[in-house]
Specification:
Layout (H helix, E strand, L loop, with lengths): L20 H20 L6 H21 L3 H24 L9
């Protein structure tokens, strides 16, 4: 008996050949915030940017996980969540969300 394999063609983020604008937006926002948090965490003076970008990236990534429909979306969200979390924790270690502003 011949078995067929599903072909994966089309959009990079949708393997079921349907548009997912909400999921793609959450994925893009999470990735951008994760990269921003990770890069700015390398500088002690940018702890406000890294901690806030990381926190918002964690929130958008977690909400994206609830509504994601394909494996590609989940994979990208996990990458963005990981980068956001590392940036958030390093930002918190360097001064936190309100370091120097409220004190």
């Amino acid at each position: 008996m011949a078995q067929t394999r599903p072909t994966v063609a089309g959009s990079l983020f949708a393997t079921d050949h349907k548009p997912h604008p909400l999921q793609d937006t959450l994925l893009a926002v999470t990735l951008v915030l994760g990269v921003t948090a990770l890069i700015t965490a390398a500088f002690n003076s940018l702890h406000l940017v890294s901690s806030w970008a990381g926190l918002i990236g964690i929130i958008t990534g977690a909400s994206g996980q609830f509504v994601s429909e394909t494996t590609r979306e989940r994979f990208g969200l996990i990458l963005g969540l990981g980068a956001s979390a590392v940036g958030f924790f390093l930002g918190m270690a360097h001064g936190g969300l309100f370091g120097g502003i409220i004190g």
